[in-house]
Design goal:
There is one protein chain. This protein folds into 3 domains: 5-294, no CATH class; 301-414, no CATH class; 422-480, Arc Repressor Mutant, subunit A (Orthogonal Bundle). Helices cover 40% and strands 20% of the residues. It is an alpha+beta fold. It is elongated, with a radius of gyration of 30 Å. The strands form 4 sheets. The protein has an 8-stranded mixed sheet with strand order 5-6-9-1-10-11-12-13. The chain contains 15 helices and 15 strands. Helix 7 packs across helix 8 and helix 14 (450-461) packs across helix 15. The chain has helices at residues 60-72, 167-184, 224-243, 289-297, 303-314, 318-324, 328-341, 344-362, 373-384, 390-403, 407-414, 422-435, 437-444, 450-461, 468-480, and strands at 10-21, 80-81, 84-87, 97-100, 110-116, 119-132, 136-140, 143-147, 154-160, 196-206, 216-221, 251-256, 261-267, 277-278, 285-286.
Length: 481
């Protein structure tokens, strides 16, 4: 259960730093591939290996993706930004410094709107800046190995303001950022592969105070659930410290999901002096206003706006609209399906039940779903026209999923069309009544609930193909006789 600091007279102050790997084919300052899963040290060259004399050259696509993301986050796009050398020792950072942006990042202040706890929230974005990723060390007892494939991968670090107050809100903010990045197609958001990583800053203070408490940073969380659980633990830990008269140490901590606790990684009494200075090998990044406007005009409709349109124009419930717009491909699939059938709510119901269940069971993405949106829409239209019932439609859908077939062909091949001929259905009703004389007598003696029994028997005898409305109509008529 979530820990509520307010119960102890405290409130949490939470900010997130999200590191997104940009979906470029080559690295930020060289031509090496960014392909994940290559052999150890396969995608490296003198530049990302930090060899003396190797000079970086900025990848223009990286700048484009940064501008696109900044616009989607309602950020100021600086006409001129600079790269700096951030000095610190990392064993898997060969140069001994990281090329990053400091005083003047490409994206200035902005904000993100999202839904959390059923209400719209707005969190400020302090900045979004470009930098290069470091390599990766793996430790094997008394020795370590370094893989530099990740060195030089372009990162966009998105820094929020200290605007969040609960762990759930922070996790929802992170989900919203991931959704926007994926809608823009600038980051795949794969947390397991490290394409999206999150550092969390947490402090507590007495309710009503304006001064911030001592900030603790939790590094490299790669799951929304872990973001929430790590924050809840840290709020609880810091609150207990203050209540016990102890001082909250300014430090960097790591989260252990197996033990559901954070632990000290390193002390951080004061802000570390990274000795930034402008990188002499890189020119200032100048962004022309016309180019920014060109990128702005190419932005897709983002999740929150799309969900609002689904509610306003298609009369979907907010819950449906929120689920369907979490992923751009899913929202696109829904739009095509509802256009094909003219019944948005039915399309939503089928997608959120049968389609998503089958996707989860098969481990398939919506882009590779065996049932296309257009065929799903066509099947729903056949239900609305009375060609098949909703129950038969599930059989049709299963066949479509298995064989990638067209619904009309499957209905014809399997003889699944609804029986709508009154005479044919009437004969089935007569057979059912004749076969169940005791139930018929009981019904006519006042046991009205047996009506459902007769309906079930007719549907069973017709193998589910009798038109339900016609069955009800004819049964009522014959039971009155």
């Amino acid at each position: 259960m979530a820990y509520e600091a307010e119960n102890e007279g405290f409130e949490a102050v939470i900010g997130l730093e999200i590191h997104a790997q940009l979906l470029t084919r080559s690295k930020i300052f060289c031509r090496d591939s960014t392909h994940f899963g290559a052999g150890d040290n396969e995608n490296i060259c003198p530049v990302c290996a930090g060899l003396p004399g190797a000079l970086p050259v900025l990848n223009e696509r990286v700048v484009e993706y940064a501008v696109k993301t900044g616009l989607a986050l309602n950020c100021e796009i600086r006409r001129q930004s600079f790269f700096a050398r951030k000095q610190y020792f990392y064993p898997d950072l060969p140069k001994g410094y990281q090329i990053s942006q400091h005083d003047l990042p490409i994206c200035g202040p902005g904000y993100v709107e999202f839904v959390s706890g059923g209400a719209k929230r707005r969190v400020s974005v302090t900045r979004a800046h470009l930098e290069e990723d470091a390599g990766k060390s793996t430790h094997h007892g008394d020795y370590s190995l370094i893989n530099l494939n990740r060195s030089g991968i372009p990162l966009l670090e998105i820094v929020s303001g200290p605007d969040m107050r609960t762990a759930a809100e922070a996790a929802d903010y992170a989900r919203a950022i991931r959704g926007i990045l994926r809608y823009l197609d600038v980051c795949d958001g794969n947390l397991e592969e490290g394409s999206l990583r999150c550092d969390v800053n947490v402090s507590v203070r007495h309710c009503g105070e304006s001064a911030l408490g001592t900030k603790v940073e939790i590094k490299n969380i790669n799951s929304f659930r872990f973001i929430e659980k790590a924050i809840e633990y840290e709020i609880h830990r810091q609150t207990d410290c203050v209540l016990n008269g102890e001082r909250v140490a300014q430090e960097t901590r790591l989260y252990d999901p197996d033990k559901n606790r954070t632990f000290t990684m390193r002390a951080k009494e004061d802000a570390h002096d990274y000795r930034y200075f402008p990188d002499p090998d890189l020119l200032p990044v100048t962004v022309e206003k016309d180019w920014v406007e060109e990128i702005r005009s190419s932005l897709p409709e983002l999740p929150l706006a799309r969900a609002a349109r689904f509610v306003a124009e298609l009369q979907l419930p907010e819950y449906d609209a929120t689920i369907l717009t979490q992923e751009r491909a899913l929202a696109d699939y829904f739009e095509r399906a509802q256009e094909a059938c003219g019944n948005p709510k039915a399309a939503s119901n089928w997608i959120m039940t049968e389609v998503m269940r089958n996707l989860n069971e098969s481990g398939t993405s919506i882009a590779r779903a065996p049932v296309t949106a257009e065929r799903l829409g066509k099947m729903i239209a056949l239900i609305d026209k009375g060609v098949i019932s909703g129950k038969i439609a599930k059989t049709v859908f299963s066949a479509m999923w298995a064989d990638r077939g067209d619904p009309e062909s499957i209905i014809a091949e399997k003889g699944l069309a609804q029986v709508t001929d009154a005479a044919a259905v009437g004969r089935i009703v007569d057979d059912v009544l004749a076969a169940n004389p005791s139930q018929l007598e009981s019904y006519r003696s006042g046991k009205d609930k047996l009506f459902g029994f007769f309906v079930g028997q007719v549907m069973k005898l017709s193998k589910g193909q009798a038109n339900p409305e016609l069955v009800n109509e004819l049964l009522r008529k014959k039971l009155r006789e």
